[in-house]
Batch of 2 targets.
Target 1
Amino acid sequence: GNSVTQMEGPVTLSEEAFLTINCTYTATGYPSLFWYVQYPGEGLQLLLKATKADDKGSNKGFEATYRKETTSFHLEKGSVQVSDSAVYFCALKENTGFQKLVFGTGTRLLVSP
Amino acid sequence: EAGVAQSPRYKIIEKRQSVAFWCNPISGHATLYWYQQILGQGPKLLIQFQNNGVVDDSQLPKDRFSAERLKGVDSTLKIQPAKLEDSAVYLCASCWGARMGTDTQYFGPGTRLTVL
């Protein structure tokens, strides 16, 4: 079945450091790919998405590129802030059948001043 | 636009008791989802509704879990009887219509259930 694999956390960085959170997927067909963020005490929020190969999703300084050849969708940010501390979830959405979201296990990011 | 509403936010019960969670999706959203998120894991889909019909309940433990979406708007998820392993956050999400390939799911704040 479809699945998503994320790097384990926590990822601990100092403010203004470069961030990469790896995400790879296994899917039949051509899924859409998402990054969701969960701030402490809050629900999941969509951060960015990409719907086809080579698409780049971006939002709030975060970027991720849909790489079909490596089945990856790594999340990057050039300069993290303390306010970026949260749990980040990579997910895929099947574009056939029921089109359900399949999530990775999440990666906690901790940014210190 | 108001977001997805869920209640209660927190619930503590003893094993073998019953519990119910409520979700009010974003107005006009035809598709509604219930997810279970166990601590340290990603959300797992329990059930998906399209209007008031069930589209996918293949991962719902039907011996103890049930869900309904009367009139195609609000939804209720029930657990009866609860087990210790049901301790999790229960998330509700909605979108305009699942058949739109790039449709975005919007999540509520979740209900944190603790079973003692």
Target 2
Amino acid sequence: AAGVIQSPRHLIKEKRETATLKCYPIPRHDTVYWYQQGPGQDPQFLISFYEKMQSDKGSIPDRFSAQQFSDYHSELNMSSLELGDSALYFCASSLYLAGGYTGELFFGEGSRLTVL
Amino acid sequence: KQEVTQIPAALSVPEGENLVLNCSFTDSAIYNLQWFRQDPGKGLTSLLLIQSSQREQTSGRLNASLDKSSGRSTLYIAASQPGDSATYLCDLRVNQFYFGTGTSLTVIP
């Protein structure tokens, strides 16, 4: 079965540069979530999108922005990179369920960003 | 802000033992709770999802329960195997998502 695809898997950038991460959700999933996991930390929720609209917002820095496109893939744009942005960035997708329920989250393998 | 705590932080058991992992949370108004496992440097693999209206879910050797009134979920692993060694995380959905602090499990052959 198709899973969540993230690219690139590894990315090395210098301080103050810009990086873009891409996420392709499981087919027919309409909701995408971004998480950041620092070394030895649990994943921190950044932001989510449902039907191309931002649905929830977590601890996403102002230097970061994200969007979901018409084909439901999502991109996380990170500018003015700092050393502390070095982390594993996960994307997850789910199917929205009616009645206030949320579907099961499926995670990608992550994109490892290293800022030098 | 939702506080999510997992106890114990680390657990080492001999193969074949049954074990229980705990997840405690402070705000009972959750939409759902999901258990994941994470292998070192890897992504998160979904184990079980419990909607807020449900009390438990089972999949193979795994059973997860949810008690919103006491702010607690447990993951029961029966007949543990070395392949179960990983970090186990609970994730709560309120108006956003909150991961627990994780339990690092080692199953000794």
